[in-house]
Structure formats: structure tokens, C-alpha cells
Amino acid sequence: MSPLFEINIHTKNQAAITTLIDSGASSNFISPTTVEKLHLPTVLLERPRTLTMLDGSTPKTGKIWKKVALEFTYDGHTMTHKFLVTPIGHHSAILGIKWLEQEQPDIDWSSRQLSFPIPHSTFAHIAQEEEADVNPLESIPTQYHKFAKVFGKEEFNKLPPHWSYDIEIELTEEGPLNSPLYSMTDAESVTLKQWLEDELKAGKIRPSKSPISSPVMFVPKKDGSRRLVVDYRKLNNRSKKNVYPLPRPDDLMSKLRGAKLFTKLDLRWGYNNVRVKEGDEWKTAFRTKYGLFETLVMPFGLSGAPGAFQAMMNEIFQDLLDVSVIIYLDDILIFSRNPEDHESHVKEVLQRLMDTQLFCKGSKCEFHQTTVQYLGIIVSDKGFSLDKLKIQAVQEWPTPTTVKQVQSFLGFANFVRRFVANFSQIARPLHNLVKKEVKWQWTEKEETAFRELQKAIINAPVIVHADPSKPYFLETNASGAALGSVLSQ
């Protein structure tokens, strides 16, 4: 048996990497050859690192200047870690003491075997996502305690009644509509089984004999936990589309002019509080290793779900929209131009939520704030600004090395484009790069566009509220590549 402890980890594209487990290594390391082979984007270190060998010597390669983030899987366990880029002999990568401390694998050093126990915190965290707070009124101002049912755990775990806005699933064609089961790790299987038991107990799903079905799978979240979802893509392709419009975020924001006080409510699994139209439940059937089930409440993943949910919210709050409330799906923002009116505005909204059996997670609600984050934007009576976390994300964004990575960056940048002057002109080289007929080529032109967009977003200004009493100025411009206009005061 080799004296070295080696394992094969697998990247997202299933590439195998021979990796050394070394408890004596202070960090994780990856070879430049492997970085190039996997097309991993590198990030410059703020300060170069000096590698010191066990004998106190320094390698001839000198200091370490770059790092990468690598997502990989071993023993059914998916994780993401940072690696310092440096030549490390014949190994592709080294996992050091920091990785061992963070992941805490079960290791048999004599047989060179490594595995991961089923992490109880993983499946417990997922199950808890669907529950209300343990002490629901702890973070709720006392004047709103009479609406305790809105924040209650018991009420949330009941099957909601049928309403006029139940979601309807209308198929465009008949025929088989099935997909194979997706494989799952032991931890995911435990989570799935617990979720099925909880949902059956709450009456939100039931066993099914449907002739069609969709598979379930887990998708990772930013915090490292996983969300259980049903892959309804085939069903969506055969369903009539719901064209009910979602409001434009910038239009919603414009209604906040003059507002002095805000309350933000976080609806708890709003979709699950809408029933599937009676007789359509069989179309939601999903298959698991534990059997075939169908849902009685609107699940995530249906193409018609966002439109159906927005239609319901607009109907419930129709007379309050743009007066004291703006709503984007399950994000509710109550605003008051006169702070003395705010309590009555909040009570009106909570009363309607209670009447329609919609529920909030109290610990995520914010009451009577002068500044609040809504739809990723910081809102106050002064105007709008970017969230510091978004600015930090742009600062740390690695240079794209693939079309998909460029598309990801542009998607983020488009979200905040209203804060960037001459956005289309700056971003043009990047937009050209994602066209199908264009061959990938990252030159100084694309690099400059990427850096300029980064800089513009990092230094984004505060956009003040418009003042109707002052004159407006419309500025327009055009070139062979772009059209632009700005309405300002």
C-alpha cells in the first residue's frame, strides 16, 4: 500500500482529480496545469503567499499569487473550497488541515479509506425551512400580537382552503410524460423521506396513481444547505403558459417617493399556501424512490406559478397597491409618507393576510424601519442605493473564462444597470461575446469592458427620488452601436 493517502475527487463536469490528503498542509493547493485543464477562473491574492516546506526551505517557484474556488464531489458529498495555485509535484491537488477541520470526514488511516457521515444538520436544516418560528411573536412588536395566527406554526402546517385563485394546469397535448429517477446520496434520501412524512401529515401531498410524473432532486443553496425541488420541465413544456405580468421592480420603486417609514413582510412558502385546482392534482405527480405522490398545493417549479401567485396577491391587496403597499410575488413592502399612519397600514395588511390564511416568518420581517432592503436594493427616504453585499460580490467576481460565466456576470450587471451610466456602450464587447456566431476570444477589449463595469457598479451613486414639482430633463444619445436616454432633474 502506498504511504501516501490519495483520493479521486470529481468536478461538476465529472473530471477526476487525483488529490493528496495531507494533514500537514496548512491550506489547499492545486497545480497550475489542473487549473488550466479545468478552465478555472483565478483570483489574485490581496497579498502574495510564501510557501514554506517542512525543512524550512522555500520552493524555487517563489511566491503564490493566485487562488481558485473549486466545487467538487467525493462519496456523494458536494463541497466548494478555495485552493492556492502552485506547482505541487505529480499530484493535481492537495487537501490540507483546513479542509479536514471543516468537512470532518471519517478516516481510516490504516486502510486509506475516507467517507462522510450523514450530516444531521443538513437534513434538519432543510426540514426547518418549511416551518414557522419556534417563538413566532418574539420579534413582533406588541401592537401586532393580535395577528399571532399570521406568524403561527400550527396554522402554517394546515392545508389551505380552495379559493378562486387556485392554480390551473392546462395541458396542450396528451401522451406519456415521465422521467427517470435521479440518484441521491444517503443524506438526501434521509431528507427526502422526512419531507414526505411531514407533507403527508400536513395533508399537502398524497399518494398518486397518475399516468405522468416528474422526478425530484436537490439543488444547493448559497448557505451550503440544499433545497428539495421537483423537476417540472417536461410538464411545463406541455402546459399552457400563464401570461399574467409580474410588476417591473423599477416601477414599484417609483411608488416609494416621499415614504418615511417602511415595514417588510416575509411570506413563508407563499406558493404552498395556494391550492392546485381540484381535478388537476394528478398533473403535479412526482416520483421518488419511496413511491409516487401528487401535491395539493402549488409547488415551486411550475411555469405558471409566479403569474398565478402575483394575480392572487394583486387581488387580495388591490385597493392598497401603490397607496401603502407594493408587492413583488411574496415580497411585501408597506410604506407610509406620514409615520403616524404606518401602524394602521401594517394592521390592514396583517388583517388581510390572516383572512386569506397567508403566513409570515416573523424573524425575517422588519417593522417600522427608515431604511430597508427590498428586491436587492436599499430603500430610504433619500432614494435608492446598492446593497454592500452586491458591491462586494462584484469586487470579488473572477475574470470570466467561458461564455456561460460572461452570461452570469451580465445577468447580475443587468439587474443593477440603472445605477450605471452608459451601460449598453460599456457592456457591448461582453454582449457581443455571448452571441452564438461569435468565437470565444477574451482580449484586452473584453477585459476593459469587464473592469469598467466592475468599477461603475462598485462606485454606483445613490439615485434620489423624483420630485414632481421640479422640471424634468430628457437626454438622448445614439450611435451605430447603441441607443440611450436618461430622464433626470
UniProtKB/TrEMBL annotation:
Q: Which domain of life is it from?
A: Eukaryota
Q: Which residues form the Reverse transcriptase domain?
A: 200-379
Entry-linked InterPro entries: DNA/RNA_pol_sf, Peptidase_aspartic_dom_sf, Retrovirus_Pol_polyprotein, Rev_trsase/Diguanyl_cyclase, RT_dom, RT_RNaseH_2
Q: Which GO terms describe its molecular function?
A: endonuclease activity; nucleotidyltransferase activity
Gene3D superfamilies, per the entry? 3.30.70.270, Acid Proteases, HIV Type 1 Reverse Transcriptase, subunit A, domain 1
Q: Which UniProt keywords apply?
A: Endonuclease, Hydrolase, Multifunctional enzyme, Nuclease, Nucleotidyltransferase, Transferase
Signal sequence coordinates: none
PANTHER family reported for this sequence: PROTEIN CBG26694, PROTEIN NYNRIN-LIKE
Query: What protein name applies here?
Result: Reverse transcriptase domain-containing protein
